[in-house]
Amino acid sequence: MKAEIITIGDEILIGQIIDTNSAWIAEQFNLNGIEIFQITSVHDDVDHIAEAMQKAEENVDLVLLTGGLGPTKDDITKIALCRYFNTRLVFHEPTFNLIRERFRNRNIDLNKLNRDQALMPEACQVLHNKVGTAPGMWFEKNDTIFISLPGVPFEMMYLVEHEILPRLQKNEKTKAIFHKTIQTQGLPESMLAERIENWESSLPDNIKLAYLPNPMSVRLRLSAIGVSLDELRQQIALEIERLKQLIPEHIFGYDNETLAEVTGRLLLEKEQKLSVAESCTGGYISHLLTLIAGSSAFYKGGITAYSNELKENLLNVSPAILKEHGAVSEPVVRQMAEGVRKALGTGYSVATSGIAGPGGGTDEKPIGTVWIAVSGPQKTIAEKYIFGDNRERNIIRSSQTALQMLRRMLLEDNK
Fold this sequence. Notes:
Largest sheet: 6 strands, mixed
Number of strands: 17
Oligomer: single chain
Strand content: 15-25%
Number of domains: 3
Distance between the termini: 48 Å
């Protein structure tokens, strides 16, 4: 079954509110085998609403509208629905009784506007709203289902969960849909696509691949459509095993896992703790680690040594090496990592030193140049990266890359 979501309201189009309803509906529908074909936002205008409904009817099996069902004059969705389905508003006694009961329980007097909310299109099946005053409406036309819901999020969610999904699950057009996200780090989107091109081309017809890049990682989302959810899970698992043969060092987790969580688990498994020495990342690595509940079990602390003075005094970096090579250099970042590991008494440490930008770059060390070191019980490694000219992205990428280098060292030490 394919669906389109139509959100109604000027407040969305002028940016006064953010449309969170569509994201929630899309997630719930996908979990229940309903594929979202399109999401559309329209003005509080009868003609605009009707035009959107007509276009949606040509493409999908289900059209879900949210918004415009309140008691005020700008709530015109029911008028648009009556015109589209060539019907009229009639007083619906059961809906009025529910509204009256809600107002009685809250000790509020009813007025005409509240009573008018019980006027419903005669052609619809009313979906009772037990948490609000605006009921949902179910229409069917030319093998397409139309459902209109209030825009208030908790009312919309109640109707989806208790009225709509139970009905749709009985529909023969509903199929199983399964999504699995693979988290990767260390390869830009274009290079990753090149590495896995043959694997992507050989995916079965019922599986789609989406690239979802951000400064933290490149996520690969596999979406499978079929009859049996268990069979889809097995099918996706086989494809992931094939992918792992191509980029084993770049896959760090799945779905919503973070690189900080993954490295934290590896540290716990080894019964080791981590310390951090940060210069260009300014504490961002520590931030990512301490977002995790219980991170004190594997993270001991960090030193943000932004100045050379702190690098010398707190991390025992040699003044001579700083003068000869500069703060953004391999020998300095190595000494930073080893210095914080010794100072805080941890088994592992990471260190960063770089030029985040937008100023400070030279021909020899352009903006985005970052040295990262990881130190463990057996060795210290350091690598140079050039990330780009955006300060915020440089900080994020440096932090993620440091954690990825740590993850690889932890895995190697387990062998």
